[in-house]
Amino acid sequence: MGKIELKFIRRLFHMDRKMDEKDKPDKQPKRKERKNDEKTANREENQTAKNLCTNQKLNVNPRNPLNSVSQPQSHQQQANSTATYSESSAEAMDDSGVPDSPLNSIQESPAQNPVKMERVPSTSDLPVFSSQFVTQISSQSDPGPEKALLLATASAAFGHGGNAPYNWQATKICVKDRLSYLCNTEIMADVHFMVGAPPHQQKIPAHKFVLSVGSAVFDAQFNGPMATQEDIVEIPDVEPAAFISLLRFLYSDEVKICSDSVMTTLYAAKKYAVPALEKQCVEFLKRNLSSDNAFMLLTQARLFDEPQLAALCLETIDKNTHEALQADGFTDIDLETLCCVLERDTLGIREFKLFASVCRWAEAECTRKNLPPSPENQRGVLGRALRLIRFPLMSVEEFAQGAAQSGLLEDKEVVKLFLYFTVNPKPQIAFLDVPRCCLTGKEQVVSRFCQIESRWGYSGTSDRIRFMVNRRIFVVGFGLYGSIHGPKEYYVTIR
User: Fold this and answer.
1) What is the pLDDT of residue 388?
2) Cβ(40)–Cβ(102) under 8 Å?
3) What strand order describes the sheet that includes 232-235?
4) Which of 89, 97, 239, 253 places its Cα 20 to 30 Å from the Cα of 195?
5) Does the bond joining 199 to the residue before it have cis omega, within 30 degrees of 0?
6) Cβ distance 389 to 431 under 8 Å?
7) DSSP secondary-structure letter at 6?
């Protein structure tokens, strides 16, 4: 009943208003026209709002998320639109009191037309971004506040230009771990190196600060008065694997070298003045030095000016001269290294065997120089090394069967050497006669048995060979007969 009375009074009020308006015919058309215009504008705004609330959905484009994110209204725009809707709803009342505004119908049934509430992204959202997306947004002259916020989020998640996960720093407990994580990555890299010779070049990223702290050469290159301004620095004389080993050491003090990369890593350490890495490389070579690689390492040690390593190589060659000369690396050495070895007085080998190895080196050198291995060419590539061979230390038989028939010596040299062996006083010759390791004269062999049967028994006591001499001798070697029942261990003592 109360509702009916109120409605009746409200209708009377409207009737009175209509009667008053009839008394003012001059203002009625203008007022009615203004009201219709406002109604039309409000209906258009309400319809637009309805369409936005009903049809707008967040459509994220994975290639460019910013183009698909709708722009939220500002607080001032929201306040204005709310006031407009309230006024239009009051004026759009018909005589029955039912609003004809689309917004009112939306407010009456919110479940049918839910409003999609959007939130401005923040750095805590951690979306997935690509480098193409960051580059595209950065290239915009005025991306706007929302896109700027997304760009900051993208930069944080993308690792400042790299591909690192967000907050990777939290998983590294010390500076060494964090710097090791940055090694050879694009994360915050401010310089790139094109390492190696074509076509095996490799582009390696790095950080100027870390390199300048660990190397005076890098410091001068990036911070000196003649500092380079190039973003990509070419290094054609260093192997990529060796340069990465150098970077790993500068970033984390970690040394990862092998027999295949140790020499190239040593060269890189020498070039960029990193003595700690040089020492690690030399220690590695010392631990792996043997008669098989002694000549190869000697060549490299002389090239890199490592006198300590060179001395160890020469000592190994002195103790195992025959094995070292038979190794494949001997024929690959350069002429200066060959001369350095031939000048030594401590080589443990007979001179005629040394001469045969030198002839083998001369043949390999002729091949490298695309020359036929004739005696004349071999003598030419040997140069002064031929004068370092001590022919007077050979016996007459050894010289006659080997060097005299090789063709490397001239006829007058052969004649003088034969006279040296046969007559007194001995003539002057152009070859040294200083003994090597006191190994002179003819080798003698002492056998325990004059003849050897198929086998003999062993009683458990030590077997001995005793002999007496009237001059100083050198025991060059000895041989043992083993057991027929399989491998055994034997111990030998020379007194």
Assistant:
1) 94
2) no
3) 202-206, 191-195, 232-235
4) 253
5) yes
6) yes
7) H
Helix boundaries (H) for 239-348: 240-252, 262-271, 275-287, 294-303, 307-319, 321-326, 335-342
Q: What per-residue confidence (pLDDT) applies to 257?
A: 87
Q: Give the C-alpha separation, 75 to 238, whole Å.
A: 62
How far, CA to CA in Å, does 256 sit from each of 69, 189, 200, 236, 372? 49, 22, 21, 22, 43
How many Cβ atoms sit within 10 Å of the Cβ of residue 185? 16
**Nearest residue to 192 (alpha-carbon basis) of 162, 168, 213:** 162
Q: Are 68 and 58 in contact (CB under 8 A)?
A: yes
Measure the CA–CA gap between 150 and 129, rounded to whole angstroms: 10
| pLDDT, tens digit, 9 for 90 and up, residues 155-205 | 544 445 556 778 888 888 899 888 989 998 999 899 999 999 888 899 999
End-to-end CA distance of the chain: 138
Mean pLDDT of 232-258: 92
How far apart CA 270 and CA 263 sit, in angstroms, is 11
265 vs 449: CA distance, rounded Å = 55
E strand or H helix that includes residue 4? helix 2-22
Q: How many CB atoms lie within 10 A of CB 433?
A: 12
Q: Is the pTM of this model over 0.85?
A: no
Could you tell me how far CA 33 lies from the centroid of its own chain?
79
Cβ contacts of 343 within 8 Å, gap of 6 or more: 388
The mean of the pLDDT values for the chain is 74
Residue identified by tokens 């036929």 is: 372
CA distances from 36 to 17, 25, 88, 138, 146 (A): 18, 17, 11, 48, 38
Q: Backbone dihedral region of 463: left (phi > 0), alpha (psi from -120 to 50 degrees) or beta?
A: beta
